[in-house]
Amino acid sequence: MVKTLTRTNDTLGPVLIRLALGVVIFAHGAQKALGWFGGGGWTGTIGFFTAQLGVPAFVAALVILGEFLGAIGLVTGTFTRIAAAGIAVIMAGAVLMVHMPHGFFMNWYGTQAGEGFEFGILATAMAISLVVTGAGAWSVDRSLATR
What we know:
Elements: H1 2-6, H2 13-34, H3 41-51, H4 57-76, H5 80-99, H6 118-133, H7 140-145
């Protein structure tokens, strides 16, 4: 089972994707989990998800942990397929529940009520590509798979 999850190759493409996605998602996860970068922290995020989005607290906690720990998994290349699958589900959920009503584009000019879904599509596609390819070179997964 572990061998199947960690199977990957030595290519650099997945490394670039997982590092870029991992760093960006880490910042979002740290906002939610720790309150870093102007975020609401654990309590504020749970409150927002339950009150504003109508998401159960358990699901909100899974989103917070998925973003924060999943991003760490991506950056280190540890159980990348699991981390990426979680992030893909979270980002697809964000597109459908939050960003879709605001159109495609990000709110670059401050003229929309919220952010569009272009970022969510990119993040979801990046995550799905990592589910398919694995972590690539320079990863804990690669080390585990070659043992």
